[in-house]
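Job type: complex structure
Entries:
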Amino acid sequence: MMEESDIAVPTGPEPLHATRNACKVCAPLGASMVFKGIRGCLPFLHGSQGCATYIRRYMISHFREPVDIASSSFTEEDAIFGGSKNFMAGVENAIRQYEPEMIGVATTCLSETIGENMIAMIRDTQAMLGQSGKTPLVHVSTPSYSGSHSEGFHAAVKAVVKHFASADAPEPDAPFVNIMPGMVSCADLRHLREIAGLFGLRAVMLPDYSETLEGESWAGYHRLSPGGTGIEEIVSSAKARGSIEMSHTLTMGGGAGEYLSKTFSVPLSSIGMPIGVRASDSLMAAFASVSGNPTPQILLSERGRLLDAYVDAHKYIAGKRAIVVGDPDFSIALAGFLAEIGIKPVLVACGTNPKNWKGLLAAELGSMEGVTAMPDSDHHRLGLAAKELKADLILGTSKAAPLSRELGIPLVRVGFPIHDRFGAQRQLYSGYRGTQQLFDRIVNSIMEAKQNASPIGYSYI
Amino acid sequence: MGMEPKGDRMSGENDIAILEGRKGQVWEKGSGASFVCDKASLSGSVTQRACAFCGSRVVLYPIADAVHLVHGPIGCAAYNWDIRGALSSGPQMHRNSFSTDLAEREVIFGGEKKLAAALDELIAAYRPKAAFVYSTCIVGLIGDDVAAICKTASARHGIPVIQVDSPGFKGTKKLGYQAACDSISKLIGTGDTSKIGPLSINLLGEFNIAGEAWMIREYFEKIGIEVVSTMTGDGRVDDIRRAHGAKLNLVQCSGSMTALAKKMEADHGIPFKRVSFFGMEDTAKAIYDTADYFGDESVKARAAELVKAEIAALMPQIKEYRKKLKGRRAALYVGGAFKALSLVTALRVLGMQTVLAGTQTGNADDYAALREICDPGTVIVDDSNPLELAKFVIEKNVDLFIGGVKERPIAFKLGVAFCDHNHERKIPLAGFKGMLNFAEEVASSVLSPVWSLVPRRAMAPREARS
């Protein structure tokens, strides 16, 4: 990379002690994103104010939408004696300014390290606030030293569901499905809801930031962006006809889907993110199982067109080698999809190390021959490993742009964050339609690279 | 959808109330009220300010031949990886994000071993001229003796390894600036100054965003003044080490670097001048003031010649922009009040009126000057937040917002033009050329045809608004 010296790194290539150019951010960001997907919810981070500011900027740069996140703004005194006073004042101010329907409280490394008792603090705050103390404060533990934004996301979905889901919810007048889509794009959220509708199901999205983080142009200012899943919908999630949770890592258990299944006997379909024909087939099977309806023709037609495209393009991409770097769930799904279309995922990496991640990847791919799995990685280690691999392209976030430049191979920008291109929130990955769009982008980036490398610059392939 | 979602309600102009604890920090010219600043942020107010760590990182980031290692969990390092537009003419080490990425086991057993190993590894791999180690929130709490680790590493590798004591909870960015200045001052005075001439300066608080330091340096070289070091734009450790040989310090971003200038004055007898290179009037003044300080007649003559030529080249185009932008109303929300002052002046050159001016960390003196130059009716806010800013954008009928990434969606959602004047920008806005870029930036947004389509503008056509 930059000015690498010729002297050996004393500890050898692996493991390294410093994380260089991480491919993860911290857990409170994932929690904040979930809270943004609940109607009228204000995210609140209990810690130093920089956490909220950094996360706001990181999310705004991707989504290009207002992202207001409150903070208890710890001081030196709070770090020593505890931040309850600031927490109380902060919640009071936040309620006064935003009139939220709910406040999502996520901890940070600071509040977790000093061992704040959030449950007691929330109880005391609500008692002190009287009437406005009726605003629900939902707490999720997200120490930044544990896991990453991805783990924080799953933890927050579960915390919200645990807080609200109730057997006392009114009986639904029509069948509906809970969808835990994982950390996907706004377009994915909309498409998943649409698919549910085609199967005759209303969807309770846990969460739904499709409008809050990709909203319309406004006629006036909104304290909190319109959109999001309503609290009454989350309450009702206990009465769903089924849940579909899309996360490879949560197939190991521990998600909101498992909680609803164990506590309220809501049947759970635990699948990976639906990218690729086979993965989307699993999604359709899950919807068919919940709804009792067969896959609608409109989706079958999309599937047919996708297969036709696979055939039309297979020669352009045959034998190509790809590096995949992304969130734990997303990277496995992408690798599975690449294998399906004949691109070898020679290196698959994520920034954290969830339980049995390599096993889940191996199960998705069938064979790990010629595949290097790198959990707990960073872009520097990725670069070292990539040197000998002769890869043709990278699937990664904007943060892989320097690696793409260094290796001289194209980067297909996928996932979060995308800070150097436009329209990431509208990028679709899920289902046959999303797969089609991703497939087209991948094929075109390979065609473009070939064309750019041609000495004559042809205009016909 | 059942009950009316409260958060979904749209805000008219008087709908957003200022929090009780913030009322002193919101001031309207002509109101006769007193103005308060320099306070810790009110918790829960959704301040636009960041933390002390962020402040230290901003100031030291552009030092391109140093390793910058963030000691803490991953977030602090990851969120600011290569997001700033500070350019280097040589090494690019600063554009990496290095972190000890503390995990649960280190939080329990301490992170010293990991820090020492990380330093050894990075120094061996990159061979930097110095290393900065940033202490984040939990480092003190888990009992790591960062100073001792730095001392050992420094002895082992023969380079300065400097702790930056800036845990986020210590305060706002301003306290982080102080921590960064303390760290830099450990380097100053350790280099050879024998070849530095009598007409020499340091540029403090100039971060070479989009190459601005290079433009400013060129002005001074043209008039015969040597720039010994830029702190910290396109920064090099060896230049900083010999910065005490310069005869004058020019302080641009006063909030971040005045502390260092004062320390250099006390320790090395170097006087300092506050300058600004935003806007052509302030740029001209900075060049004249510097030339006058040295008193050298040929320098003064060259300064006059330079300013005259640059302004003559600029004015015809500025006049064109002025014709198109005249009468438009601007809001600005930036880091420090000294920069805000320059922007008010620069906007006037473009025929625009500032109706809302605010800063994250302005001090009382700067605000006094800002209040002085603003027109009656202008609202001045300290440590504001998105709702307040939206309130005044609506109330003051703003056409253009100048700010950073966090302010951009406020403007855009309301159909208001925007100019990015923060560290992320990729276009130089300093100096004479920068004034032209600024005019272009402003015009490209204000005059866009898209505003005629957005609901808030379409509902209230320009002619109908006063």
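Summary: Chain B has three domains: 13-38+323-464, 52-185, 200-305. Chain B touches chain A through 99 residues (CB under 8 Å).
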